[in-house]
Amino acid sequence: MQIALEARHLVKQYPDVLAVDDLSFQVRQGICFGLLGPNGAGKTTTVEIMEGVTPASSGEVWYFGEPAGKKFRQEAGIQFQNTALQDFLTVRETLDMFQTLYDRKADIPHIIEECSLGELLERDNRKLSGGQRQRLLLAVALVNKPRLVFLDEPTTGLDPQARRNFWDLVQQIRSEGTTIILTTHYMDEAQILCDEIAIMESGKIIAQGNPDELLRKQYRNVVIELPLEDVSGDLSNLQHRILETQGIIEIESDDVNKTLQELAIHVHGLNRLKIRQRNLEDLFLDLTGHSLRA
Amino acid sequence: MFQRIFAIFRARNIEFVRDRSSLGWNIIMPVVLMVGLSFIFSGGDRAEYTIGVLHSGETIDETAHPFLRTRYIDFVVVNDESEGFRKVGRHQLDLLVQLDNPPRYWVNPDSPKGYFAELALLQAFDGQIEKGQISGEAIRYVDWVLPGILGMNMMFSCLFGVGYVIVRYRKNGFLKRLRATPLRSIEFIVAQVASRLVLILSITAFVFVGTKFFLGTRFEGSYLVLLLIAFVGATALISMGLLIAARVTSEELAGGLLNLVTWPMMMLSGVWFSLEAADDWVRQVAAVFPLTHILNAARAVMLDGAGLADVAPQILALVAMSAVFLALGAVMFRWHPR
C-alpha cells in the first residue's frame, strides 16, 4: 500500500520544552491512523507540523513521495481542535467560502448530506450546537475532496450520542478511501476508528501498530473487576497481579475459570463481577506508568 | 451575588495583569501621549486663534501695536494679499490684518473663530480699524470641515475595521484555519484591503452625496480626482492597519497601537483646524501621516477646484505609503501566534 504521509525526524523545540523529539513514522494510504497520548504528549504539535501550520525546528514531512507543499495544501483536509468560524456567515456561506479556496472541489450536496447539514444550511455559525459545529468543521475539511484528512480531537466536548454519530461519519469517509489522521485521548474512539495507532509520550512514539495486535502482543490475559466492598478475605495469596482503583479491585487472569474458583473463597458474591478484555487504556498505563488522562 | 461579581472582577484583573503586552501598553500609552502633547503644546500659551499679518517682511515686530502681543493668538506673516484672502476664506486664518495707515482687517463672515478674533481686534484698536472686503468667495466652515470629517471616518474605519478584526481572527484561530488552505498571506491581505476599500468608499460616497444634497456643500473640482484621492488614501490607511495587526495577538494591545496612530492623526492632520500657525517641525511630523495628505488633497479639489496635476504630490505620497505599509505588512504577517 502506498505511503500517504511520512514524518521524517521531526523535532520541535520551544524555548522551554522539547515538544516533538526526533519523531518518524509513516501513514499508509486509505487507513485511519490514530495519534494517541495524554495532554502535553506532543500530538497536536506533531499534527500541526504535518499540516503545515507550525514549522518544525528540524525534520521533514513527505506527502505521497514528495516533500509536502502546494499539492499537499490542495489535497489535505483539516479539522482543528479549536477553530473559530467567521461570525454572521451561514453554514452554506461558510462551505462556499472554504471551497472557493481550493482548486479541487468536492460535491457539496453530497457533503451536506453526509454530514447531515441539510436543515442547517441557512443557520448562522454562531447558533450551532457543539455536535452541529463539529459536523460543519468536518464538512469544511471535506470541501476540497481531500485524499488525506486530519481530525484533531474531533469529539472533545461532545455528548455520547453526538460522539457516536461523528464516529459513523468518520467511518463513512474512510470507507470512501480517504486517509484519516486522528488525534484523540479517547481510547474507545481510537479502538473503534483506527487501523493503526501510535502512542506518544513526551514527544516520542512509545508504541505503534494495529490496536488489536498491540494488545494481543502485550497481553494474554483478561481483567476481572470486583467492587472492593464485596471482598471479605485477603487476596494477597492469589497468584495474580491485583490493582485497586476508585473502589474497584482489578485482577489480571490468564485462566478465568481457575481465578473465579479462587475468588469464590474470598468474595461475598460474584453478582457484581465483570470480566473485560484488555484495552488501550491498560496498554498506555503499562507502557508509561500513568493514566492516559493524568 | 457580590462573590460572583468579585470572582469575575478578580479573574479579569488577573487576565489583564498577566497579558504583559497589554499591561505594558496601557502604562506606556498615556505616558507617550502626555509627553508628546506637552511637547507639541509646550509653552503654556497655546494659541486659540491664528491671525495673518499682511506685510512685506519676514518677521513680525510685536512693538508695532499692542494687539500683536495678545495672548492665545498666533500671528503669522502673510506677504501676498490674495494668498491671505484665500487662507481667510478657507478658515486657515481667522483674520488677516494690515497695520499700515490706515490699519485694515479682513474676516470670513462664516468663521466662528473669526467672529471672536474680530471682537478682540476691534477692542484692541478701539474700533479705529477699517474692515476690508475679501475678494473671491469665502467658504463656510462646514465646507472646510467636511473633508476632515469624511477623512476621519475613513481613518477609523480603515484602521480599526481591518487591524482590530485581523487580531481577533488571529486570536480565535480563524487565521490558523485559513493557513491550512492554499490561501497565501498576500491573497488574504489583498482581500482584506479590497473588502474594506469597497465598504469605505461606498460609505464615504454616501455621506458626501448626502451632505451635498442636504447642506449644499461646496465642490469645485473633479469627482474622479476626488475618488482617486479617496481610493489611494483609504488604501494607505488600510495598509497601515494591516501593518499594525501583522503580528499582534492581543486585542487590547492592538487597540493601544491603533490609538497611537489615530490620535496624532486626528490632532495634527488638520481634521478640525488648520495647522497654518503650527511650527515647521509639527507640520513635518504631520506630513508622515496619510490623513494629512488625504485632507490636503481633498480640500484642494473640493474647495479650490485643484486638478490631478495639483494634487499629484499628495497622491504619490499616499501610493508610496501604501506600498511600504503593504510590503512590510506582508513580510511581517503571521497567521497564528508562535
Explain this structure.
The complex is a heterodimer of chains A (294) and B (338). Chain A has ten helices and 14 strands. Chain A is an alpha/beta fold and 294 residues long. Chain A has two domains: 208 residues, Rossmann fold (3-Layer(aba) Sandwich), CATH 3.40.50.300; 58 residues, no CATH class. With 338 residues, chain B is an alpha/beta fold. In chain B, 63% of the residues lie in helices and 7% in strands. In chain B, helix 8 packs antiparallel against helix 11, helix 8 runs parallel beside helix 12 and helix 11 packs antiparallel against helix 12. In chain B, strand 4, helix 4 and strand 5 form a beta-alpha-beta unit. The model of chain B has no long low-confidence stretch (mean pLDDT 83). At the A-B interface, helix 2 of A face helix 6 of B.
Strand content of chain B: 5-15%
The name of the CATH superfamily of the largest domain in chain A reads P-loop containing nucleotide triphosphate hydrolases
Widest β-sheet, arrangement of strands of chain A: 6-7-8-3-9-10
Radius of gyration of chain B: 24 Å
Indicate the overall shape of chain B.
elongated
As for the number of domains of chain B, it is 3
Q: Report mean pLDDT of chain A, rounded to a whole number.
A: 87
**Count of helical segments of chain A?**
10
Briefly note the structural class of the backbone of chain A. Answer: alpha/beta
Largest inter-chain contact set: A-B, 19 and 14 residues
Low-confidence stretches of chain B: none
Would you tell me the structural class of the helices and strands of chain B? alpha/beta
H-E string of chain B = HHEEHEEHEHHHHHHHH
Sheet with most strands of chain B = 5 strands, mixed
Task: Report the total helices of chain B.
Answer: 12
Contiguous uncertain segments of 5+ residues of chain A: none
Overall pLDDT metric of chain B: 83
Oligomeric state of the chains in view = heterodimer
What's the helix and strand layout?
The complex is a heterodimer of chains A (294) and B (338).
Chain A (H helix, E strand, L loop, with lengths): L2 E11 L4 E11 L3 E5 L6 H9 L6 E6 L2 E2 L2 H6 E4 L11 H10 L7 H7 L15 H13 L5 E5 L7 H16 L3 E6 L2 H7 L2 E6 L2 E6 L1 H8 L3 E6 L14 E4 L2 E6 L2 H11 L7 E3 L3 H9 L6
Parallel strand pairs in A: 3-8, 3-9, 6-7, 7-8
Antiparallel strand pairs in A: 1-2, 1-4, 4-5, 9-10, 11-13, 11-14, 12-13
Chain B lengths: L1 H17 L1 H21 L8 E6 L18 E6 L2 H9 L5 E4 L5 E4 L4 H13 L5 E2 L9 H32 L1 H6 L5 H31 L7 H22 L6 H18 L11 H7 L3 H15 L7 H21 L6
Parallel strand pairs in B: 1-2, 1-3, 4-5
Antiparallel strand pairs in B: 3-4
Helix pairs in contact in B: 2-9, 5-7, 5-8, 5-9, 5-11, 7-8, 8-11, 8-12, 11-12
